[in-house]
Structure formats: C-alpha cells, structure tokens
TrEMBL record, chains A, B:
The name this protein goes by in its record: ROK family transcriptional regulator
Species: Demequina lignilytica
Family recorded in the similarity comment: Belongs to the ROK (NagC/XylR) family.
PANTHER family noted in UniProt: GLUCOKINASE, ROK (REPRESSOR, ORF, KINASE) FAMILY
Pfam families for this protein: HTH_20, ROK
Gene3D superfamilies for the chain: 3.30.420.40, Winged helix-like DNA-binding domain superfamily/Winged helix DNA-binding domain
InterPro entries noted in UniProt: ArsR-like_HTH, ATPase_NBD, ROK, ROK_cs, WH-like_DNA-bd_sf, WH_DNA-bd_sf
DNA sequence: TGACTTATGCCGAACAACGACATATGATCG
DNA sequence: CGATCATATGTCGTTGTTCGGCATAAGTCA
C-alpha cells in the first residue's frame, strides 16, 4: 500500500539498502517523526521494510534501525553483449547476489537469445534456493537504441531481427513482473553513477568495446532523446579516422578508428596480426609498442569527439569503460590529452576523466537500480527524493 | 499566500495567460473541483488570479473563466548583446507590452551598462504609466556563461570586467524583486520553446551572430552544466575552419569560420569588403554570390558540429536563430545538408531543423518566462505542472 | 414554460501531517 | 547502586487539505 508521497520518499531514501533511524529518515524526507513512524509501520507490516536491532550505544536510548527488506524479493538483471550475456540476481536494494556469464549470439535473433537468458535466470534462482515467485522485477541492458516510452529496440545495427521486438512481453510470459529494457551504456552509466558519482548532475559514461557508445546523464536523469538514440556517438566524424569506411556506410566515423575493431584494423594495416578487439588488450598488456600507440591514438580520437560533447553539456565527470578501457592508462592518456587541450578552460577546469571502477558489474548494477525504480514506483536515479523544491524553511 | 502544491499547480497551468474554467483547471491539475474552488478563491482574493466574465453559450449553465492577473505586475526582461540591449516590459503572463533597443557596449563593464538598462527600464515604466512598485521581477540574458546556483557570469570571453560581477545585487539596489540572470542563448531557447515547441523533450537552440552558442533543453529543462558552460559550442573544432586562428587562441574553431565575424573573414580573404557580421546579411540580401556561398559554407560547418550534438542527445528540434540566421535559406540549407548526411538515420528521421520564428522577441520572452518561474515559485518550463507521476488511476 | 444540461456553493467525512506529552531505555556520574 | 541525563518511542488530539455529495443557479432547447 505504499502509494503516498511520504512512503515513496521513505523508499527513495532507503533504496540504497543502508539502515537508518526514524530521526534520520524524518530529516531526510523532511517530515515529522510521527509521520515517518506511521508510514514506516505500514511499510514494515507490508514486508517492504525491516526493523533491525537497536543501534550501538550513543548517550541516550538506542534507536531502532530500519532498512529496505532487501531479501523480500529478487531482481533479475541482465547485460546483453554481442556475443555473451551476463545474467545476475540482485536483492531489492541492488546488491548482486549471484551472476553468471553465458555465451549467446545476438544475430540469432531475440527468441533463442532471450530463451537462453531466461533459462539461466531460472537456474540461478534454483541454485539460490529461491522460488520463481520471488522475482520482483526483470531488467536488461541491450546494445541497441531503446525507445523510452515503449521499451522497444529501434533500428539496432548490431542486432538485426530485434527491431521493435517486444522484449517486455516475451519476458513476461515467464516472469510476470515489471520488465525494464534500456540501452547497455545507459545502464552502465546508472551503475557507475549510483556507486561513485551520486552528487554529479551531468555525467558521461563512455563504453569503448567492439563499438563505441555513451550513456548521458543530465540534471541527474538519463537522457534517451527523441528516438532513444541519445549517446550513439560511435558514428561521429573525427579527423583521425580519415577516409576509413565504417560499417555504417559513412567515412571517418569514430568507431571505425577507435573501437576494438577499429584499433585492430589500424594494427592490421601495420602488419600486426589481430583477430578481434579482445586481442588488442592482450597485446598492450604484453607490451606491444604498436598496440599501445594505436590505443593511445584511439584515445585521442575519442577525446576529439568528447571535446565537442563537453562543449555541449559541460559534464563534471566522464567515465571511460568497456573492454578496451581495461588496458588502462594508454587509452585514458590519449583521451585526456585531447580533451584538456581542446576544451574551453571553463568547461574543463573541474572536469574529471576517469576509468570505470567496476568493469564487470556496473551494467547489471545499473539495470537493477532502474528495475528497482519501477518496482517501488520511484523516479530518477538519485539517493534522495529529488532536490526539487524544499518544503520547509 | 499561494504556497501549497495545489496553488502552484494552478499557477503552472495558468501561467500562459489563457483563461480556463474551474472544470478545466480541475482536470489539468488532477484535483477535485471543490479543491480547485477553494484555492482559486484564495488566489483571486490575493489578486493573483482574475475572475473573468462568463463563457459564451454551451448547453448548460455558463461557467466562470479564470486567468492569471497578468496586469497585476510588470516583469522587466532584458536581452543584452555585445553592442546593444533590448529592454522590454511584459505582463505577468509573459506578454510583451513595450520594448526598446538601446545602444551600449559591454566592454565598458557592468556598472555603466546596467545603469543604462535600468534607466531605460524606468523610462519604459513611466511611459506605460506604471509606478516602479509594480515591478514584480527582473531578468536579463547575457552573452556569457552563467553559474546556475549563483547567477554570476563566469569567465566571459566577450565581457571582460563582468567576471563574477553580482548583477542580481546591483539590480536589486533599484528594483528590490527577484532577479534572474542567464545566458542569452538559454533564454532564447526558452522563448522559442514555450511559444512553438512546448511538447518537445529535447531541443537545441543555435544562435549564429557575432559568435555562436547553443541553448540546450533536455527532459524539458534547460541544461547549464557543471560550470554554466553548457551550450558553448563556438569553439568546437570543425574541419571546414582549417587552421584558422580563433580569438580563443585555438585553431579550427567553429566560430572562427561560421560566425558573423568568421564569414566576414572568409569574404575578406576573397577580396570582398565587409566590416562586420551585419554586412554579411546585407550582402546576401543584395544577391552577392560570394556572400551567399560563404554563408552556405558556414551552414555546413555548423552542420558538422551539430551532427555530433545530435548523436549525443538526439533532439527532436533544432532551432536556428541569431542575426546571421535572418538571411534565411542559405544558412539553413547548408546546415541541413550536412546534418542529414552525417547523422544516423534513426536520430535524423524525425529531426526538424527550423529557423527561429521570432528573431526579435524570443530572448525577452524567454527571460520573462524564467522570471515568472521565480515570481510564482514554479519549476521547469512546461505549461503543465510536470508530466512526472500521474496521481490517480 | 418546462425539461435538460452544465456550473456553482456549501458541508461533512476521510485522511494526512504535525506538535506535544508521557514513557521507555540505555549511558553516565556521584 | 541509585539518581540523572540524553535520546528514542508511542499515542493522542488538533489542524489543514482534499474529496464527494447535494441542493441550487443559470443558461439552452423544444
């Protein structure tokens, strides 16, 4: 029954899973303690919030601690890549309790891929000793633009056969719960955002892997754009890419030069043998001078594109992730070099360009958070209700 | 006393100045008629809302119409350019009732310029037969980045001497009312947005004049960025600008090639005499082939930069304004040519690139709307409360 | 003129939030 | 070891907001 503003606000504060006292909650939600008491009672009765043991000694009477009943349900969070899927279970607070990577191929089309994912999810649930009825929500990040209102993938270049396929409906045949679908980089942005960059209003998450994409956070909210195509920066034209022909048919695309495939292509032109983007990381780690240089050049190209993005939205943080980012410094150095050289002083003085901290789980963490928003009817990403308008003086 | 949510919601609906019946208001604010009645009574009593005559015949009893008491106060709205200022008076609904353009020079520094503006505002008030005590709010759009929280201009390249000058405080010495300061292109974006593009979630306003800047609207809200530098796209690097040195010290900046000054420079290199950006418009209108071509080239360069912006935020509308935009087709054609060629099909299929419709008053209209938000304690730009969460089933 | 339609005003009921008071529970100190 | 202090808890009456219902007003239309 938590449908009032106060209950929502309480959940919005408690959604991170940490426990709090009534006084803390009253302060955080800007209500009186009696109001918080009343609503907490309902939430506890409904099994949504748990009353924990008393706090350790302060001076006065110890207070009760309240926290989200994170174990009351399970969220299935999936990150889909071109050749694999990471299927994870999280508790209602977003803590990952189990995860497993399976091999799939998105070009096989939606049914077989989703079937494999759903099977894996069932297996994980069984292994965790959880009945399927415990599933409270399902979410998936996919490497395609997603239309915000409908959750449908639209014109996905990497995923022929998925165009406007109703993933939500398909999943609901198995798990009849809220289903969230969003772009893979968007969910990474959320994952990194809620774990490390809660306070930042504008943030950019860049994924450098087989392709290149961005997750865009503005005013603490994900940006989807009119067609779900926001953040599709792989086909920005950069000078470094020259006349190289991209798979999209254009020339000079960022992706054709700076993605895993693009770097491999650069190296191949120099006679260095690489099959795939994955090899590039191995080569750099092995100390290959050519590979290191190519990655740094790729970083510069990305930096060139980012300089423009910075001029447009002036973010305070840019997080670099994706498989290629795991080479670490060379890529980051290339990006920083151009970003700080080409950006206006005002926009770059406070700007931080950092590597993603959780390459493996950022995606599913973000998915879980977005699903949680739906399960609890919460808005936005922030830890607090929303910094909108303060109510009291 | 209108400080409750319901009163705010009512004002948020009525802010456009149109009149509505109680039933319409109840529907728009999602409250019962009795609630609306109660709050309207207070608002009418407070002189904030006016009760108008009855509606013309429907079938049943005619209803009363209610509208914002637009004449209860005056908003002073100013648009500051490098060499001039447009000082306007609007009613509380944002309707421009008087305006006058005065000559100033921003390089003289803030005090003399603001003094001239304030004097002009006083003159306009006197001419309108309005006492100064009628002024309910003051706003100004300035050609500089503005820090959102403080309203201070930061590191303005065009306005040396204005850095972190407290415009709000200075104005309040004369008019002790809410004072709003924002970037000139931001306010133009708001002005165009509320008059023609209310429904669009993502929108870009591009001003092409002496310099080049953008106003960025995402999720129906203005984007200021971490340092107020969002939309400062004049110094994006574009290939067309080649190695041309920009006043910012970098090379290849969009502004060095595609702004009024940049176009003049291009023409000068071809031996065509122009003193200033203003001349460019005259030359095109006079049928100069060189000037027309140069403007179209400028459009292409802008299109190149915009293609990147489109990839990042996927707007549904891009509005082109500024003095150079008044040449009309050549500029727009150049922009469209590159935008539609370089953008991903998904992002550009629904995208409209249009000319600003109100070159003269869009700025002050936007200023007035932003001031109105402060005067009535409203959030956002939208006509409706915010499409956030629907309250009933 | 009377039926019909639509708006209005007013009132009591339901609900949410608050502040205050009495009480509970531990630490701390003499 | 008991008194005191500090802090948290539960409950209750008050206040204010919102809702739905009912009687009534003010037009149109036949």
């Amino acid at each position: 029954m938590p449908d009032t503003t106060t209950s929502s606000d309480l959940l919005a504060v408690l959604r991170d899973g940490r426990s709090r006292t009534k006084t803390e909650l009253a302060e955080a939600t800007d209500r009186s303690r009696s109001t918080v008491t009343a609503h907490l009672a309902k939430l506890v009765e409904g099994g949504i919030v748990t009353q924990l043991e008393r706090t350790a000694a302060t001076k006065g009477r110890p207070s009760m601690l309240y926290a989200l009943a994170a174990d009351a349900g399970v969220i299935v969070a999936v990150e889909l890549g071109a050749r694999h899927a990471l299927v994870a279970l999280t508790d209602l607070a977003g803590g990952v309790t189990a995860h497993h990577r399976i091999v799939v191929d998105v070009v096989d089309g939606p049914e077989p891929v989703l079937a494999a994912i759903l099977t894996e999810a069932r297996d994980l649930l069984a292994a965790a000793g959880r009945p399927e009825s415990d599933v409270a929500g399902f979410g998936i990040g996919i490497p395609a633009p997603v239309e915000l209102a409908t959750g449908l993938p639209v014109s996905p270049p990497l995923m022929p056969g998925w165009d406007r396929f109703d993933i939500r409906a398909y999943v609901r045949l198995v798990f009849d719960v809220p289903v969230m679908v969003d772009n893979d980089v968007n969910v990474m942005a959320v994952g990194e955002g809620i774990t490390h960059w809660v306070a930042e209003r504008e943030m950019l998450m860049i994924k450098v892997a087989t392709g290149i994409g961005a997750g865009v956070v503005v005013n603490q909210r994900l940006v989807h754009g009119a067609d779900g195509a926001a953040g599709e920066i792989g086909h920005i034209r950069v000078s470094a890419a020259g006349d190289r022909v991209c798979r999209c048919g254009q020339t000079g695309c960022l992706e054709s030069f700076a993605s895993g495939i693009g770097i491999a292509r650069t190296l191949a032109e120099q006679g260095v043998d690489t099959d795939d983007g994955r090899d590039v990381v191995a080569l750099v780690r092995a100390g290959s001078i050519e590979a290191t240089r190519a990655v740094r050049e790729a970083g510069r190209a990305i930096g060139e594109a980012l300089a423009t993005c910075i001029s447009l939205i002036n973010p305070s943080v840019i997080v670099i992730g994706g498989s290629i980012a795991s080479v670490g410094e060379p890529l980051l150095a290339g990006i920083r070099e151009v970003v700080y050289q080409r950006s206006q002083p005002l926009a770059s003085k406070q700007l931080r360009v950092v590597a993603a901290t959780d390459l493996e789980l950022a995606g599913v963490t973000g998915v879980s958070r977005l699903v949680q928003s739906q399960v609890f009817h919460l808005a936005g990403l922030g830890a607090r209700p929303t910094p909108a308008t303060q109510r009291r003086s």
